[in-house]
Specification:
The protein is built from four helices and eight strands, in the order H-E-H-E-E-E-H-E-H-E-E-E. The chain has 362 residues and is low in regular secondary structure. The chain has two domains: 132 residues, no CATH class; 229 residues, Roll (Mannose-Binding Protein A, Chain A), CATH 3.10.100.10. The strands form two sheets. Strands 1, 2, 5, 6, 7 and 8 form a six-stranded mixed sheet that branches. It has a two-stranded antiparallel ribbon with strand order 3-4. The chain is globular and about 50 Å long.
Length: 362
């Protein structure tokens, strides 16, 4: 059974695993040099190696060394001679060696690497081919850094993330949470009794129903952040959108620490909501209607369902390493990403006990 075909191994070394040991032969589809001229087989001395072996073709951690015959300096991704290039002049495949492989699979024909030069994002130097790509995200993915907020909060502001934090999930119930929103809005120059916390509870504190949904507390929109940017025009678009570090700002117009590129530490993007993605109550995930500072009996297993935890959203819409995965945890959700570790401490997993505040327009 042949383990390589049409030079596929050059682009995907991983398929060499399980190939076994091969010897150089002129009848192997013309891929190997004459047996008397080298050991250019796969897995043999100087053959293609995934473990950085020490045969001809060079040692190198994870390097792919290939010697088509007497020419040393095979194709190498890391640690080989030729400065990490797939280059006829510097570490080319069988460069000048007998039994070199050409693009058509002919035997004993030197390969023209000018016709087969590898580029990565337009670069001919492949030194970093084996390095993990650096993932970037957010408004400063290509450089820059967040600046200070403007001196004056936009008069359009009808939404913000609280700058005030809480060590526990005890916010004084809905009334205490609403008061936080009103106090912060007043300090920002926009006082109003209509400011409401985006929080769901399992038991209505005024006895008019069995539960309260966060979505039913905040009016109908539209809502704007502290810099006057539109968050959402109505409830439907609000609950269809994703988190965004440049939109989900505090009442001073400052960004919330998160997983976005350039963010300060620590991560604080877990915002308390107690809600499902549609804004309805997530039962057992409200820190006993925002009055508990007790930890869960399961020790805070992520989404373990043990109670005494809070459902949180990601203000920036990102997970670790800028992940935007939506399963099993929806890192992109601004209001229902996952459960926190417990009502006794909002910090683990990336929180600080912040909440969302909306100005209801009815």
């Amino acid at each position: 059974m042949l383990c390589i075909k049409k030079l596929a191994w050059l682009l995907s070394p991983a398929i060499l695993v399980g190939c076994g040991s091969w010897t150089s032969s002129s009848d192997a589809l013309g891929l190997y040099g004459d047996a008397t001229r080298g050991t250019g087989g796969l897995g043999g001395g100087g053959g293609a190696r995934l473990d950085g072996g020490t045969g001809a073709g060079g040692a190198g951690a994870g390097g792919v060394g290939f010697d088509g015959g007497t020419g040393s300096g095979g194709a190498r991704f890391d640690g080989g001679t030729g400065d990490g290039r797939l280059d006829a002049g510097l570490g080319g495949i069988g460069a000048g060696g007998a039994g070199a492989i050409d693009a058509l699979g002919a035997v004993d024909a030197p390969m023209d690497m000018d016709a087969f030069r590898m580029s990565i994002d337009g670069a001919t130097d492949a030194r970093e081919l084996d390095s993990a790509a650096v993932v970037v995200c957010g408004p400063f993915a290509t450089g820059g850094a967040p600046g200070d907020a403007g001196a004056v909060t936009s008069p359009l502001m009808s939404f913000f993330v609280t700058s005030l934090t809480s060590v526990t999930g005890n916010l004084g119930g809905l009334a205490g949470a609403d008061q936080r929103c009103q106090n912060l809005a007043q300090a920002a120059g926009l006082p109003s009794p209509l400011w409401r916390a985006y929080l769901s509870v399992e038991h209505n504190p005024v006895g008019t129903g069995p539960s309260v949904n966060a979505r039913d507390r905040i009016g109908t929109g539209p809502w704007y952040n502290a810099r006057g940017a539109l968050l959402a025009s109505d409830l439907t678009s609000l609950h269809a959108r994703k988190g965004d570090p440049s939109v989900f700002l505090d009442e001073q117009g400052k960004m919330i620490n998160g997983q976005w590129t350039g963010s300060p530490s620590p991560v604080e993007h877990d915002i308390l909501t107690g809600s499902n993605p549609d804004g309805t109550v997530a039962f057992g995930k409200t820190c006993e209607d925002w009055t508990s500072a007790t930890g869960p009996s399961d020790g805070g297993i992520l989404d373990g369902g043990g109670g005494l935890v809070a459902r949180v959203g990601h203000s920036d819409g990102f997970g670790p390493q800028c992940s935007v995965s939506t399963s099993p945890v929806d890192y992109t959700s601004w209001n229902s990403a996952h459960d926190n570790a417990g009502c006794d401490n909002t910090e683990p997993l990336g929180g600080a006990g912040r909440i969302y505040c909306f100005k209801a327009n009815q």
